[in-house]
């Protein structure tokens, strides 16, 4: 068994520890040993497929698909083992946050809503989204993880950056579970379509393409999605693409044409038009100030 308590440590402070683990060539039947600190919350993002996890404190076993995550509270120091059965790569991103930091952040004494959020976190109600299934990361969650991985500054700037991103991740998680509570027990059409878009928005997809791939009529997709999310499918796809484009545009080493392709636009003219409509300026003008 490989003990990875300090392996891949990216950030450490009094309240937060971030680890990035990537075991590209695991031995057959080898297991990674993950430690959760006493009285802490652990945000675990699984970045490779078919990872099995066994939590020793509650004798629970999970099978994670790629890009699923859990938010878990541990009252005592505990260990968990992760492994794959076919010598597949094991890659995960873990954020550990101590209880007192979360308590001060949420301030449960300030309102009933805040108290309920903390209670749900302690009771581990943010592990399963639908029918004992861990939630999938959203596009924004992916972006935040990439920002945390690529951030290069150290000291106070890094600490402030990390804390800001963790707060944003928690907000996204709470929103995702609040959205779940508004849906029926079985995910509706709009949920299925949104999940498909979140995973494929960077491709050249349209409502008719989604219809063909999901087996749902175009009219039903458009109607249900707009009713649930108060925006059209096309506008949602565009918003996701523009969110990614704006983050990429600050890197002057990436050509605008490359950003357009990365964001799902076949023609750079269409990308420029959409960017200017969204932000009021062309990509080049925003990049050059």
UniProtKB/TrEMBL annotation:
Domain HTH araC/xylS-type residues, every copy: 191-289
Lineage top rank: taxon: Bacteria
Record's protein name: AraC-like DNA-binding protein
Annotated organism of origin: Chryseobacterium lathyri
Keyword terms of this UniProt record: DNA-binding, Transcription, Transcription regulation
Pfam name, any one: HTH_18
């Amino acid at each position: 068994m490989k003990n990875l308590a300090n392996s891949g440590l990216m950030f450490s402070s009094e309240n937060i520890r971030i680890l990035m683990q990537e075991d590209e060539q695991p031995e057959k039947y080898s297991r990674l040993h993950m430690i959760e600190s006493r009285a802490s919350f652990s945000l675990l993002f699984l970045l490779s497929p078919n990872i099995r996890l066994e939590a020793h404190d509650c004798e629970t076993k999970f099978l994670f698909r790629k890009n699923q995550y859990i938010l878990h509270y541990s009252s005592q120091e505990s260990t968990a083992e992760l492994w794959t059965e076919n010598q597949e790569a094991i890659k995960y991103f873990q954020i550990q946050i101590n209880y007192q930091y979360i308590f001060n952040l949420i301030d449960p004494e300030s309102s009933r809503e805040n108290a309920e959020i903390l209670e749900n976190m302690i009771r581990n109600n943010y592990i399963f989204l639908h029918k004992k299934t861990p939630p999938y990361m959203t596009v924004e969650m992916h972006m935040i993880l990439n920002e945390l991985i690529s951030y290069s500054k150290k000291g106070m700037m890094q600490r402030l950056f990390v804390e800001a991103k963790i707060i944003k991740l928690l907000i996204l998680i709470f929103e995702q579970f609040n959205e779940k509570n508004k849906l029926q027990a079985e995910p509706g059409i709009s949920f299925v379509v949104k999940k498909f878009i979140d995973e494929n928005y960077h491709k050249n997809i349209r409502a008719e393409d989604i219809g063909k791939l999901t087996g749902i009529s175009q009219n039903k997709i458009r109607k249900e999605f707009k009713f649930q999310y108060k925006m059209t499918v096309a506008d949602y796809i565009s918003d996701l693409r523009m969110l990614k484009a704006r983050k990429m545009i600050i890197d002057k080493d990436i050509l605008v044409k490359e950003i357009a392709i990365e964001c799902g636009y076949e023609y750079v003219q269409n990308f420029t038009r959409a960017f200017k409509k969204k932000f009021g300026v062309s990509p080049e003008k925003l990049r050059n100030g």
